[in-house]
Design a protein that fits this description.
Helix content is 35%, strand content 26%.
């Protein structure tokens, strides 16, 4: 290893940032603005690739409705303490100064251009303008701290600095660079990792009716139960797929379902396909209509309420063929059908893979990080930002706000740490 190290060109600076995503770029900019010389290392060819996927390419980069309930990890108080140091308005000001004006829809904030690429470009420009030295296509193979200095090695270079920020992302969407390698680096520095699992992800089911429902999008309420206990619920447009269920409301509750499945609990998703109606009102209206339309088949009879695919699946689950007439169904059958419309059950077997997930739950344990500075409680001079930590928010710009806030705090704190250490343990100059 010593022989290899002598062949690698060494670069020295005040602060090394590992990871060139949203949190990494924000960390690098803020550390540089704080007076530190900064090197940013990214293992893909381009900074900020994952940003391009946000909000279906429109980049919902924050939200005006920000509170602890928007974060679903076990310590939302930690998250809110960090967010207070760089709140939503500070984020809007930062990006406006970078040329990104915004527009708002029901609290959701987008670039005025409605293109994620514009925000990515603005961040990259800020990195450049603040004098950050960027190394792309450099995979970090090792990190160690010795004599108060951090030594980082890649496949073609070595780096030395007085502070280091880990902002490598999680395991979600690994094609964009979030391959989970940061967990290994954090472990190397003594940190514990809460088991990473997919979050904001589609749920899979072994319900044999999934294939017949595939392709339908319909407003509904989805409630997750684990061993019979209700653990999460949300309402919106549900997408029915051949493998299970998807859509924003499913994403919002998915982390609870995934975690419960991982804990070997029996998990179900109960979907109310008609959340705007009460069961009693529907039953009364349907019974009255039945007497006037008794010869209609069950699918046609209910097709004014729901997509025919959903009606047919519900009918089949109740034991009725699609051509069963309403006079055969009768009052008891109507009550049974409506009860199923209001509580169609999917047995949940898990979720789609990390490749399909927007973010992860789990990561570096928050118990080992100081929320006042984003500094490691185990290794002075080591800071964290973004998805690498055990923080996961709902859909709606909350995870990017966490990236901005944690990145700002980590970068600012790292610069202050470097300044306090100069003239004592090291000097990058």
């Amino acid at each position: 290893m010593r022989l290899l190290m002598t062949k690698l060109k060494q670069h020295t600076c005040d602060c090394i940032v590992i990871g060139g995503g949203a949190a990494g770029m924000m960390s690098a900019v803020c550390a540089a603005q704080g007076g530190a010389s900064v090197i940013l290392i990214e293992h893909t060819a381009r900074l900020g690739s994952k940003i391009l996927q946000t909000g279906n390419g429109k980049c919902n980069f924050t939200n005006l409705h920000m509170n602890a309930s928007c974060y679903q990890n076990d310590n939302p108080r930690f998250v809110m303490q960090v967010l207070k140091t760089f709140p939503v308005q500070a984020t809007l000001d930062f990006f406006e100064n970078a040329g990104i004006y915004h527009k708002e829809r029901n609290g959701y904030i987008y670039p005025h251009s409605e293109t994620a690429a514009s925000l990515q470009s603005a961040l990259r420009y800020e990195v450049q303008q603040n004098g950050v030295t960027v190394f792309t296509e450099q995979s970090v193979s090792s990190i160690e701290k010795k004599d108060h200095l951090f030594y980082v090695t890649t496949d073609s270079a070595s780096f030395c600095a007085g502070a280091c920020i880990l902002a490598t992302g999680s395991k979600a969407a690994p094609k964009t660079g979030s391959d989970g390698s940061g967990y290994t680096l954090a472990k190397k520095m003594g940190h514990h990792i809460v088991k990473p699992l997919p979050a904001l992800v589609q749920l899979t089911s072994d319900n044999p009716l999934c294939k017949s429902m595939a392709g339908v999008r319909s407003t509904g309420n989805v409630t997750i139960f684990a061993n019979g206990s209700r653990i999460a619920s949300d309402t919106g447009e549900i997408q029915y797929t051949d493998y299970g269920i998807s859509g924003i409301p499913v994403f919002q509750v998915s982390r609870y379902a995934v975690k419960a499945v991982d804990e070997k609990k029996y998990v179900t998703a109960v979907v109310d396909m008609l959340p705007d109606f009460t069961a009693d009102a529907l039953a009364k209206q349907s019974i009255r209509r039945m007497y006037q339309n008794s010869s209609l088949d069950v699918v046609t009879f209910f097709s004014g309420l729901l997509n025919k695919k959903l009606v047919q699946a519900v009918a089949k689950s109740c034991g009725y063929a699609a051509d069963t007439t309403m006079d055969t169904v009768g009052k008891k059958g109507i009550f049974r059908l409506i009860s199923t419309f209001k509580a169609f059950t999917f047995s949940i077997t898990g979720s789609r893979s990390f490749e399909a997930a927007q973010i992860c739950q789990g990561g570096v344990s928050l118990e080992e990080v100081d929320s006042q500075f984003m500094q490691s409680l185990l290794c002075p001079g080591l800071f964290f930002a973004g998805e690498l930590l055990d923080v996961d928010g709902k859909c709606g710009g909350y995870n990017l706000q966490w990236a901005w806030s944690s990145g700002h705090l980590a970068g600012t704190s790292a610069a202050q740490y470097c300044i306090s250490q100069k003239g004592t343990h090291y000097d990058s100059n």
